Every structure is written in structure tokens, then in C-alpha cells.
């Protein structure tokens, strides 16, 4: 990690970022002696907040058109076919050597392709993705993936970064921790390089049983993918060399995953539409909140929108902001400090104690779909996260983790050493009236939300089946956010091509979730042939064979499962999977047994 360390430090600490990008231009600042312009109307009848906000956005160079720049910066259109292959890989546990997690297990479409937890749960989970997910915790909250095509650095400690501060530019290299270093710099985009890393993470998907280093893990993932005809056919559609017999490579895997992420750019918010000229895109409260954000509340000092921030509301540099220290009761990660209940942040990357407790500024777009905030999810409402920023010392000293899951409620790590390092810009409280506070929260919650990021839209990307034939995980839709993803002026969601089911295939339906009694499964076959119907647990072990190559004609067949295994014993409460097979066609459905 010492390679190009001076450039990395400049990137993560912000030495190469102009001060004007951090703090905004002087015209943006609202001074105590003159204050903001009064809320009223000018001589032309235009609302004063609109006039002020247009001036601020013009000063900062905020266009509201960052999404339009994606393909020009890529130098090509987004490849829908390759993106859909990446989508299937995203949800397939075949790429995780522990066989129980995938990208989608932590980057969930139920929450903006981010975490459903305050601190992520990777391997050894209960196959649920949502509030009821259980298992050993990792160290931090999983960040959102949507819009990360524009991020110059990735992860809470910026350990994956473009040294040019441009994710579309590999000229200075893409830097990663050892053993990769700069070896992935030949790829075109930071996301293509970053995709090499998650399959090697032991606590996320790889597990701790498989021997070997990162390269051996990737070789095993490739062995799995190359052993599945359906994946070879899909990769062959996008990579002619595979079609002609060459093996699937990890570069191909990285390009497919990144291409899917390129389709997850959602920046059509009320603020963006206002910046493009729609005066009615924002409510009066959102406009007042935006003026506070860019002015007296000081948010734009770190949540920048100019220059290399790519209008993402982050300076992508590192700060200490006094976040209370949360440590899980059960974890598969190694925490820092004497009592193993601290997270040293950037110091883990640089080895420099002066970087302790520093974390990258979180981008703020679509934060309304997030269930928790900060690198460890210690706050579970936008309101509490804002209150912390307005008065860090009071918030940190009085914080109690009672709102978190039971395994995150203590004991907490020490707060005094964190507060000693708090960024100077947060050392003095910022006073807002109750109305101003509500306006600021409204802007953050509504003014920066693209409706396409809501679960009702993104959950349509969850495949019914994946090419490996494995069952997918159970995704719990957050009821509070399951609104229809439509809004005046909002762009429609990108449409990705779907893999068509075979014309002579098989379908499987399950009648509800049960606590007692029979589970009814409906098998529909498009042609006659031998049909197998089996139940599996989350580890892929057979629980019950209900049909064993029984010859069925075309049509519908109802089969009941009494909740017992092949030995006649009642199975435990949990998630199970029914799989129906007809020739090479398969269909999977989830069965949840509750007490």
C-alpha cells in the first residue's frame, strides 16, 4: 500500500482538492451580519427562495445533468445485454465460495442497492435480505451502489480509488490494498476493477474454509462459472472468444458487474429538475432547506457538489465527525482498539495513527431509501443524523444505541478519543429553528430522492431464477418505502433485457407462508416428461423429495408438503426452497415456515 502513497493521501485527505470545492464559493456563504435574503417575492413575482437557489447552483456549477454525461464519459452506450448478465451474477450465490451470499445480499434492491442493516451481515446468514436478516456482523454498513459510477473512491475508508480522482480515467492508476495494488489499472473504469474484490472477501461471500489467496479464490469462482453451460452461453453473447471456446475470465466478470452498476444511475431528483429549469419541481420547504444546506447549515462544506464530486454531494475525502462507536456482539471481523470495539477507519489503509477515525464523506443522493446512516449505521433516521451534524459533541456524548438491533446495543467503544479528533468545521454547534430543521430534513429526504430508487422499482430487477439453478435469497420489501416509483417529471426506470424462459419449461408456485399444516405447491409443465420436485434448506441440502422423476403430462399438478423431511421428522422453523426440474428446465420458489 506504500505504492503511490502520496497520491492516495492527497486523494483521501483532500490535499489535492481545491478549497473552493470544499467550502463553496464566497457568494454561497450566508454571513451573520447580512443573513439570507428574506423569503418573499421579487418585483417580477418570482419567489425569492427560487431566485436565491438558482444563484447558488449557478455559483457551484450544479447542472442537474450528471446522468446525461454517463455514456459520453464511458465513450459508448451502456450495453444492456452485458448489464443483464451482471444482474444475474449479482443475485447468484455461485460467485460466493461460502455458498450463502451474493452481491445482492448486502447491496439490496429493497434499499437502493445498499444495506438493510446498520452493520452488514455477510456469510452464515439466514438467507433473508431485510430487517430480519441474521448472522455474524461485518465491521461497517454496506454503502449504496446506485450512482457509484461517478464516485472517484469507493468504500468507507476509500481503499479503492482512482488516483486521477476520476473513475472514468485510469491514466494514474486504480489503487487497491495488497495484493492487488495497481495491477487492476488496465481496466477502463474503477468499477470494473473493483468488481475483482468482493468475491475474495472472506466475511462477505468467500468464507473462511477455502484455502488460498485472492487469486486462488477467483480461480475457483471462474471454475464454477465455466462449469455451467448457461453462463458460458450468456458470456458468449457478449464475448466472442467465449463463444469460440475460450474460458470466462475475471475481466469479463468485472465488466459484466460494472455494466449492471452503470444502469443504476438515478439522479432525476426535484433539485436536478429545478436546476434544469423546472421552477415547480421543488416545494417551498425543499427550497428553503436547500438554501440552508448550501448556506448557513454548512453541509456543502463536506457534501460537495462541485468539481470532482460529480454532483454526488460528497467531497470524497476523509473526516472525523464524532460518530459513536458501535461493535456487534457477534462478528466475523477484527475490530480495533484495546477492547476490540473500535473502528480506526482510514488508519487501516495508511497505517498512520493521525488518520484514525477518518471516514469518507457519504454521498447524499437517495438517502431516503437508507435504513441507517453513518459508516456503522448508529443513527436510524435522517433527523437524528442531521442533529448529530448540527451538534456533534452533545449528540455523541448522549447517544444510546437502544434503537439498534439487540446485538448492536453494547458495550460501545470509547467516544472521548473520537471527539478529540473531530473536524474543525463541526466543533461549533449550528443553531436552527424548528422550522429550519424541518426544511433541511425535507430537502434531504425529498429534494434528493429520485423515485426510480424506491423499492417498488428496483425490486423488479430481482430475477426469478439464476443461471446456476440455485435458489435466490428472500428479499423483504420495506413497507414504509414500497411506494409506486412514479413522480411528475421523473424518468422511467431503465429496461434491461430478461432471459426468456424456455418454451417447453416448467413453472412452480407456492401458496403462501404457513405456520402449521400443509404447504401447497403448484407445478405447471409445458410438455410431458419426467418431473422432480425437491425441498432444500438454505445450505442446499435436500430435505424432502416430493417427486422423483415422475412422468407427468402437460398441465398443472398440485403437490403438498407436510413440513417433514425424508425421515418423517418435522423440520425446523426457517426458509426452504422448492425446486422443480423438467429436463434442463428448472423452477425455484421459496417456502418460509414460521412458528
Architecture overview:
The protein has helices at 5-13, 19-23, 48-60, 70-74, 80-90, 103-106, 190-194, 202-206, 214-226, 229-238, 240-243, 250-262, 270-275, 284-294, 347-350, 382-390, 392-398, 416-419, 434-447, 455-458, and strands at residues 128-129, 153-154, 160-162, 174-175, 318-319, 359-360, 474-475, 506-510, 519-525, 529-536, 542-552, 555-561, 574-582, 585-593. It contains 20 helices and 14 strands. The strands form 5 sheets. A 4-stranded antiparallel sheet has the order 11-10-13-14, with no helix packed on it. A 3-stranded antiparallel sheet has the order 2-3-4. The protein has a 3-stranded antiparallel sheet with strand order 8-9-12, with no helix packed on it. It is 26% helix and 12% strand. With 595 residues, it is an alpha+beta fold. The chain folds into 3 domains: 5-24 and 268-451, Cytochrome c-like domain (Cytochrome Bc1 Complex, Chain D, domain 2); 69-262, Cytochrome c-like domain (Cytochrome Bc1 Complex, Chain D, domain 2); 506-593, Macroglobulin (MG2) domain (Immunoglobulin-like), CATH 2.60.40.1930.
CATH architecture of the largest domain: Orthogonal Bundle
The number of distinct helices, counting runs of at least 4 residues, comes to 20
Structural class: alpha+beta
- Provide the number of structural domains: 3
Number of strands: 14
Return the average pLDDT rounded to an integer.
Answer: 87
Residue share in β-strands: 5-15%
Helical content class? 25-40%
Largest sheet report: 4 strands, antiparallel
Q: What is the fourth-level CATH superfamily of the largest domain?
A: Cytochrome c-like domain
Detail the poorly predicted runs: 15-40, 480-502
Distance between the termini: 50 Å
Q: Can you tell me the CATH class of the largest domain?
A: Mainly Alpha
Categorize the overall geometry: globular
CATH topology of the largest domain: Cytochrome Bc1 Complex, Chain D, domain 2
Amino acid at each position: 500500500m506504500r505504492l503511490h502513497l502520496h497520491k492516495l493521501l492527497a486523494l483521501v485527505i483532500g490535499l489535492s482538492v481545491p478549497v473552493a470545492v470544499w467550502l463553496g464559493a464566497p457568494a454561497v456563504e450566508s454571513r451573520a451580519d447580512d443573513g439570507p435574503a428574506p423569503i418573499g417575492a421579487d418585483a417580477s413575482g418570482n419567489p425569492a427562495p427560487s431566485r436565491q437557489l438558482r444563484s447558488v447552483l449557478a455559483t457551484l456549477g450544479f447542472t442537474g445533468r450528471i446522468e446525461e454525461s454517463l455514456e459520453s464519459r464511458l465513450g459508448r452506450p451502456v450495453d444492456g445485454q452485458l448489464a443483464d448478465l451482471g444482474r444475474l451474477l449479482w443475485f447468484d450465490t455461485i460467485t460466493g465460495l461460502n455458498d450463502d451470499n451474493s452481491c445482492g445480499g448486502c447491496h439490496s434492491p429493497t434499499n437502493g442497492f445498499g444495506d438493510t442493516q446498520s452493520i452488514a451481515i455477510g456469510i452464515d446468514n439466514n438467507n433473508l435480505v431485510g430487517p430480519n436478516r441474521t448472522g455474524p456482523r461485518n465491521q461497517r454498513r454496506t454503502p449504496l451502489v446506485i450512482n457509484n459510477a461517478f464516485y472517484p473512491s469507493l468504500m468507507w475508508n476509500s481503499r479503492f480509488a482512482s488516483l486521477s480522482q476520476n473513475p472514468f480515467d485510469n491514466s494514474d492508476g486504480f489503487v487497491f490494498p495488497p495484493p492487488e495494488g495497481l495491477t487492476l489499472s488496465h481496466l477502463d473504469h474503477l468499477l470494473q476493477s473493483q468488481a475483482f474484490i468482493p468475491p475474495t472477501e472472506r466475511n462477505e461471500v468467500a468464507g473462511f474454509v477455502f484455502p488460498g489467496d485472492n487469486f486462488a479464490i477467483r480461480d475457483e469462482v471462474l471454475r464454477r462459472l465455466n462449469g455451467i453451460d448457461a453462463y458460458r452461453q450468456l458470456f458468449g453473447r457478449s464475448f466472442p472468444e467465449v463463444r469460440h471456446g475460450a474460458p470466462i475470465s475475471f475481466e469479463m466478470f468485472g465488466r459484466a458487474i460494472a455494466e449492471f452498476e452503470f444502469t443504476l444511475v438515478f439522479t432525476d431528483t426535484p433539485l436536478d429538475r429545478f436546476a434544469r429549469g423546472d421552477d415547480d419541481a421543488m416545494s417551498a420547504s425543499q427550497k428553503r432547506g436547500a438554501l440552508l444546506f448550501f448556506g448557513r447549515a454548512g453541509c456543502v462544506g463536506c457534501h460537495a457538489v462541485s468539481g470532482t464530486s460529480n454532483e454526488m454531494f460528497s467531497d470524497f475525502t476523509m473526516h472525523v465527525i464524532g460518530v459513536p462507536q458501535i461493535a456487534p456482539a457477534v462478528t466475523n471481523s477484527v475490530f480495533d482498539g484495546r477492547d476490540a470495539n473500535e473502528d480506526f477507519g482510514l488508519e487501516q489503509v495508511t497505517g498512520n495513527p493521525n488518520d484514525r477515525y477518518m471516514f469518507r464523506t457519504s454521498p447524499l443522493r437517495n438517502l431516503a431509501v437508507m435504513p441507517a446512516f453513518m459508516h456503522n449505521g448508529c443513527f436510524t433516521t435522517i433527523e437524528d443524523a442531521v442533529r448529530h451534524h448540527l451538534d456533534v459533541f452533545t449528540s455523541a456524548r448522549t447517544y444510546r444505541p437502544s434503537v439498534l438491533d439487540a446485538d448492536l446495543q453494547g458495550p460501545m467503544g470509547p467516544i472521548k478519543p473520537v471527539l478529540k479528533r473531530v473536524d474543525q468545521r463541526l466543533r461549533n454547534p449550528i443553531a436552527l429553528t424548528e422550522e429550519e430543521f424541518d426544511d433541511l430534513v425535507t430537502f434531504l429526504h425529498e429534494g434528493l430522492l429520485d423515485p426510480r430508487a424506491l423499492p417498488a422499482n428496483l425490486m423488479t430487477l430481482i430475477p426469478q431464477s439464476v443461471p446456476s439453478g440455485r435458489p435466490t435469497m428472500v428479499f423483504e420489501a420495506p413497507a414504509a418505502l414500497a411506494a409506486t416509483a412514479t413522480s411528475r417529471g421523473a424518468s422511467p426506470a431503465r429496461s434491461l433485457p430478461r432471459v426468456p424462459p424456455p418454451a417447453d419449461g416448467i413453472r412452480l408456485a407456492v401458496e403462501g407462508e404457513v405456520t402449521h399444516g400443509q404447504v401447497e405447491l403448484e407445478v405447471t409443465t409445458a410438455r410431458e416428461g419426467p418431473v422432480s420436485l425437491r425441498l432444500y434448506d438454505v445450505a442446499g441440502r435436500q430435505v424432502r423429495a416430493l417427486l422423483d422423476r415422475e412422468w407427468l403430462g402437460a398441465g398443472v399438478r398440485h403437490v403438498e408438503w407436510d413440513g417433514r423431511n425424508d425421515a418423517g421428522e418435522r423440520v425446523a422453523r426457517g426458509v426452504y426452497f422448492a425446486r422443480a426440474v423438467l429436463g434442463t428446465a428448472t423452477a425455484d420458489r421459496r417456502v418460509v415456515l414460521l412458528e
